[in-house]
Amino acid sequence: MAPCAGLAIYTSLSSYLDATQINQRDPMRQVITFIFLIMPLVAHAQLEITWLQLMPEMDSKISNPFSVLTRKQVDDLRVVARISEKPSPTKEQLELKSKLIDSLSEFDIDATEILKSREEMIAANVKRATSPTVELDDQFVKIAGFITPLAFTDNKVTEFFLVPSAGSCIHTPPPPPNQIIYVKTNDGFELESIHHPVWVTGQLQIENVNKTVEYSDGVSGVQSLYKLYEVSIEKYPLQ
Predict the structure, then answer these.
(1) Which long-range CB contacts under 8 A does 173-178 form with residues at least 24 apart?
(2) Beta strands at 181-189 and 218-235: parallel, antiparallel or unpaired
(3) Are 211 and 225 in contact (CB under 8 A)?
(4) Does the pLDDT at position 8 exceed 80?
(5) What global pTM score does this model have?
(6) Three-state DSSP class for 235?
(7) Residue 73: phi, psi to the nearest 5?
(8) DSSP readout, 108-166?
(9) How far is CA 19 from CA 6, 32, 181, in A?
């Protein structure tokens, strides 16, 4: 606990004790006095989070089927997958596919099962990238990131996407929806550069937001799964 916070608690508790000495015969009033004195100290307790926490954890039942394979075995499976996806493979391609499957089976590798597991892993990753972390809903958080501006007022950015890397949604494609936070502030923020990180603090809520962002070579719709309310913005200290 920071020294100033400890001093504030001590001062409030001292005031509380003084008040209870005056109201010793009124226990309910003592409780109410204590609640009102301590409330400002616990309100808006910040939870400093990282971007990975905005992405739900991977299902423990889903594993990477390629983690125990050699580089050549992975390459062989890749060829098998490509041939399997062709609508009209040639005779030579089918023969190559059969040969590779037989070769993999010599190492107790079931190509069909592994490719099925691959599809399950891809689906799980897509779901993970497009789902919010429900435990963070309505939490008062602090997170560092970069600003992708959406609107300005008097040379101050008043509406933006907070993203984990500089230039996202402008020079590079947008990150997954749960790696983007929509922020709107009435006070505005003097943005020196999109490459300068900031700290943003506020109440995080799960909310689907769609905005149009201007790329370096056009415009595109960008989706966010989070929105920050009651925000304060400060520059991230660079060493």
Answers:
(1) 174/213, 174/220, 174/222, 174/223, 176/55, 176/129, 176/130, 177/129, 177/130, 177/208, 177/223, 177/224, 177/225, 178/54, 178/55, 178/56, 178/129, 178/130, 178/131, 178/132, 178/133, 178/225, 178/226
(2) parallel
(3) no
(4) no
(5) 0.68
(6) strand
(7) -65, -40
(8) T--HHHHHHHHHHHHHHHHHHHT---GGGTTEEEEEEEEEEEEEEETTEEEEEEEESST
(9) 20, 11, 44
Instruction: Give the H or E element holding residue 218.
Output: strand 218-235
CA distances from 56 to 31, 132, 164 (A): 40, 6, 16
Residue whose pair of structure tokens reads 């009033």 in the numeric block? 29
Mean pLDDT of the chain: 82
**DSSP letters for 156-208:** EEEEEEEESSTTBTTTB----GGG-EEEEEEEEE--S-TTS-EEEEEEEEEEE
What is the C-alpha separation between 196 and 173, in angstroms, rounded? 19
pLDDT digits (tens, 9 = 90+) for 147-202: 999 999 988 999 999 999 987 766 677 899 999 999 999 889 999 888 999 999 99
Where does the pLDDT of residue 2 fall: very low under 50, low under 70, confident under 90, or very high at 90 and above?
very low
| Among candidate residues 226, 71, 230, 89, the one with its CA nearest the CA of residue 162 | 226
pLDDT digits (tens, 9 = 90+) for 23-51: 445 555 554 444 444 444 445 567 999 99
Give the model confidence (pLDDT) of 213-230 as tens digits: 876 667 788 999 999 998
